[in-house]
Specification:
Low-confidence stretches: 1-22
Helix content: 55-70%
Radius of gyration: 26 Å
Distance between the termini: 104 Å
Order of helices and strands: HHHHHHHHHHHHHHHHHH
Shape: globular
Number of helices: 18
């Protein structure tokens, strides 16, 4: 009888301890993880992370589900031999069970994992021949370059599904998995902003060695280099499904449409400038530099000295400074006073809106312009 009472007591305390563990706040549980991690008790930390994951799924807490998976992946790198493959498979498994918005966030993370793996092993992929089917449908490390890029595209596209809901979901809801810079919520206010920018990091890449069709898409239309309002209404169509540039342009359109009616024009301006730079850097039509400068000047004039105007003026000053550096007394005299113009424009922005983001950038450029330097050109012999 005594043994039975003892057994019941042990079970009772065990259930109470488990109940207490489940009722702990996420903050308390993560503090436990942090302490175990600092003590190099990785396996014990992983157990607590697993309990956090169960609690998060039970409560349908998307940010905590994602955070738990990220920590599990980090520990897998230490505890597992085939860590990269296991991590990817874990993400796939979670995606199958997840719902919006957890599914969207995980899809973006999975695409990023593939993209980072390529960047770390670029030389291997460039030496592989394209195959009609995947050599191994599970092990992404055996895929060729085109297959990997197609898979990355699929997951980034999927991460942006349910666009309307993503635009209504505040990025601040996912603070627990973000390392935010000061003021970043002004420029990435919604979950759509965040996931779209993640996708743009891939779609804006200069990697172009994948197999492309004969009628491949190129930025050869000067009309694409226009003001943001006009660009948002353009019809961008192509039969080239492999074009990362076309996908990037479509995402820029969606971001501009999202922030077009905003009461904070600099949020729109940040995206618009990012779009203009992308087109300018990748365009193949003539006179792109002059057209780029004119669009920036028109946008700055339309802003009439507001916060958005300062951002456009900074880009103009940066372009003038770049052109000014190409001045050569005997061979290229045309840009002789461009640096002077850039400095004057920076001082104007700083004076009009001294506390703005544009003024902050202009101060940095002004410091760069006024920095002392000495260059000597000598004969070799």
């Amino acid at each position: 009888m005594k043994h039975i009472i003892t057994l019941i007591t042990i079970l009772l305390f065990s259930q109470m301890a488990q109940s207490q563990k489940n009722n702990d706040s996420f903050e308390t549980l993560w503090k436990q993880v942090e302490k175990l991690e600092n003590d190099a008790l990785t396996k014990s930390a992983l157990k607590v992370v697993s309990s956090i994951s169960e609690k998060a799924k039970k409560e349908k807490n998307s940010p905590q589900i994602v955070k738990a998976l990220l920590y599990s992946s980090k520990y897998a790198m230490t505890l597992e031999e085939d860590a990269q493959l296991k991590i990817v498979n874990d993400f796939k498994r979670e995606i199958e069970e997840a719902r919006f918005p957890t599914k969207n966030v995980l899809e973006s993370y999975l695409a990023t994992l593939y993209w980072q793996f390529f960047q770390q092993n670029r030389y291997q992929f460039y030496n592989r021949t394209k195959t009609d089917v995947k050599v191994d449908s599970v092990d992404f490390r055996t895929w060729d370059l085109t297959t990997l890029f197609e898979e990355i595209t699929i997951h980034f596209d999927t991460s942006l599904e349910n666009e309307a809901k993503l635009k209504q979901t505040l990025v601040s809801d996912f603070d627990v998995i973000l390392h935010q810079q000061k003021g970043s919520e002004e420029y990435r206010p919604t979950l759509f902003d965040l996931l779209a920018q993640n996708a743009l990091a891939f779609y804006s890449t200069s990697e172009n060695n994948i197999t492309r069709p004969a009628d491949k898409f190129e930025i050869d239309n000067p009309e694409l280099l226009c003001n943001g309002n006009t660009f948002a209404q353009l019809n961008i169509s192509t039969t080239d499904n492999t074009s990362l540039q076309a996908k990037a342009l479509c995402i820029f359109q969606k971001l501009l449409m999202l922030h077009l009616p905003t009461a904070k024009p600099y949020t729109f301006a940040e995206v618009d400038i990012q779009r203009l730079q992308f087109i300018y850097q990748n365009a193949v039509f003539e006179n792109r530099e002059q057209q780029y400068l004119e669009v920036l000047q028109n946008a700055a004039s339309a802003g009439n000295g507001n916060l958005a105007s300062g951002l456009y003026n900074y880009e103009i000053a940066a372009l003038l400074y770049q052109k000014g550096n190409s001045y050569q007394p005997e061979t290229n005299e045309e840009p002789r006073w461009k640096i002077k113009e850039a400095l004057e424009l920076c001082e104007k922005v700083i004076k009009e809106n001294p506390d703005s983001r544009g003024a902050e950038k202009c101060r940095a450029l002004k410091t760069q312009i006024l920095a002392h330097s000495l260059q000597l050109t000598m004969e070799r012999h």
